[in-house]
Amino acid sequence: MKKRSIIIFLLFFTFSFCGYTQNITATAHLDTNQITIGDYLNITFKINSPKDQQILFPVMDEKFVELLETPFDWIANTPIDTIFENNQLILSQKLTIIVFDSGSYTFPPIPFFNIDSLLVAQSNPLQFQVSTIAVDTTAAYKDIKPISKAPFGLHELWLYLKKYGLVILLSLILIGIIIYLLIRYLKNRKRKNPREVKQVIPVEEAHIIALRELELLNQKKLWEAGKIKQYYSELSEIIRVYIENRWQISAMEMVSSEIIMELQKVSIFKEEINRIEKMFEMADLVKFAKWNPLPSDHHLAFQFGKQFVENTAKLESNTEETDNNTHQEGGSNE
User: What CA–CA distances, in Å, run from 168 to 153, 173, 177, 293?
Assistant: First the structure.
């Protein structure tokens, strides 16, 4: 009696399973059943099931082909395509493989399971033939083709940057830092040790040339004619040339503040430095800040420049006279 019950249960389960899967079908087909070694072979898998059934469709990727333990090599696979048609769920996917040995092959059937891990369908096996390339043994031998250069496009550039981008970026940053430090070092060195400029020794003394140029500037009457910027440019240039000829300071290559710093290193009274500093400030305001001074300011700036030349010229003469007197006194004592 017990044995009979077991047989009835197994028969019931079998008919139930057949009834459950009779509306689910799985198929597989090839795009061709005859290929040559090295050709691609496309296999399309498709499964039809009722709309309310949840079928687990395997992803035909490289790992899937390896698990088949076949002499096939995976090339590509398409995403799983899903279609609803007449209350039917249609799932499909294309797998591309390649075979490098000639012969007859069978692609094995693929099982399909539902969400409860029950086998619901199985695809059909596929037979195909792989043939070798025909070789003409009567033809003459040909030399090996030379190495051809692969095209270097945007895709190759992206792969190169993806691989070496970080190294290139860090290298550029390092090079930029080195260049910045080198430029900064050279600028500081130039400020500390100004490059030697060939000194053109004027035929006349520096203050004589400067006073003559100032007189010529005064006769031009530039500011009276409305040429204020030109007036202050020529005035400051005369003083700069005088400073270069008088103390060998590269005043023409310096800004006003740098000139004042250099003048503070030579033997000049503080009042003279303050006077010429005010003149440079007035000239800079006119040239760079578009300041419109009064007529009295024009005259004052001119006087500052002229007095600076006259007083520093007297200082030079007094220094020479003092040196001569010192030498004379020394000779008398001897």
Answer: 19, 9, 14, 56
**Sequence-distant (≥ 6) Cβ neighbours of residue 248 within 8 angstroms:** 199
Q: Which residue has the tokens 């070092």?
A: 185
Residues forming a β-bridge with 113: 56, 119
**Does 155 fall in a domain?**
no
Tell me, what CATH number does 86's domain have?
Answer: 2.60.40.10
Q: Does the pLDDT value for residue 250 go beyond 50?
A: yes
Q: Mapping DSSP to helix (H, G, I), strand (E, B) and coil, where does residue 165 land?
A: helix
Which tens digits make up the pLDDT trace of 135-154?
A: 766 777 777 878 877 777 78
Contacts of 20 by beta carbon, 8 Å cutoff, 6+ apart: 118, 120
pLDDT of residue 191: 66
DSSP conformation class of 254: S
CA dist., res. 185 & res. 172, Å (int): 20
- Residue 57 Ramachandran class (φ > 0 left, ψ -120 to 50 alpha, else beta): beta
- Tally of structural domains, the chain: 3
What is the reported pLDDT for 130? 92
What's the CA gap between 219 and 8, in Å, rounded? 134
Residue positions counted in the chain: 334
Whether the CB-CB separation of 276 and 304 falls below 8 Å is answered with yes
* AA letter at 187: K
Q: Which domain holds residue 186?
A: 167-194
Residues 73/65, Cβ–Cβ less than 8 Å? yes
